[in-house]
Amino acid sequence: MEIAGAPANLLMGIIAGATIFLGLPVAFLRGIGEKTRGSLTMAACGILILLIVDVGYHMVEALERTAMDANWHKLAIMSAIVFLGLMYGLVGLAKLEERRGALKGESDPLSIATMIATGIGLHNFAEGLAIGQSFSGGAISLGVVLVVGFAMHNATEGFGIAAPLAGKPVSVWRIAVLGLIGGGPTAIGALLGGFFVNEYITLLFLTLAVGSLIYVVRELLRLRFASLTPSGAMLALSIGLLFGVFTEIAVEAATNSSRSGNVASAVEIDFSRAAAGKTMSIPAGSQVLIKNAESTTLEFESDGLFSGELFVKSGDQAPVTITTRPGNYKLIVEDSDYAPIIVKVTPPEK
To answer: What is the pLDDT of residues 291-332, one digit of tens each?
Structure first.
């Protein structure tokens, strides 16, 4: 990426992160009862649980891919990162709260909101890296879709930050600071992602996010709302969880639809058992058309070759954009014994 592209990456990160402020006004709700405040808090808890599952999946997936490659040295480093990240995110936060004296009885709502914003910020930094990587790799349309998708996510995360503060006295500037803590790292990640992406750094931030979010959920579940019944609390939590699930589905659908661009000049990968294990070269930023010649639906994953996972039905095809920098990558069929296709990504064609 040229230096001139840095402002554009930063702008895209700001757009994706700024939507977190859309959910923050919930903190300024006044005159609401304890039951409503408890319901909002449990709904926020549901959203955070989904984030834990989502981020945790990507964390474990990184370890699984390394283990499949039998790269034990790399696996040892990544395992150490996961261990240290979880220890700091879980035990470290608990120690910090103990020193602040916030664990005498119930935790302070502002402290909980700050921890939520911190955990979400760590997660959003990793999302920002993906945005920056897409734009720097030449996948402008995919980058825009990622911006829109992450912006949708951040709007729900803003609600998760603000819900514990609903009905409580809190100043506008404190809410603004919480928004910057949660959304600001998206812009920082997008800027840095345009220059480099280090899988160890990404894994570290994902792991820290998982640990801190687990701790925050534990704190939210410790809160007591006398007028909120257990069934009411679980109903609110379920609504928050389902809201997050359907948002995730909408983002995935938008991402998949973005892959239906011009494929007339796309590089074709006709995947079958006979083709498994072969090696091919593709210029960075190219359109690739993956065809499924097998009799069952296949789930394709990559170690950075393109963003997300890709499901292709039997006899169907799906386009993706190569967003990574030059290097060797693997196109992997999940939950199968197919040998991965080795893809050598070369510098973009002039």
So the answer is: 888 888 888 877 667 766 778 888 888 777 775 567 788 888
Q: Within 10 Å of residue 318's Cβ, how many Cβ atoms? A: 18
pTM for the whole structure: 0.66
- Could you read off the pLDDT of 33-67 as tens digits, one per residue? 778 878 888 888 888 888 888 888 888 888 887 88
Domain borders along the chain are 3-257, 267-346
At the topology level of CATH, where does 267-346 sit?
A: Immunoglobulin-like (2.60.40)
- The radius of gyration of the chain's CA atoms, rounded to the nearest angstrom, is 21
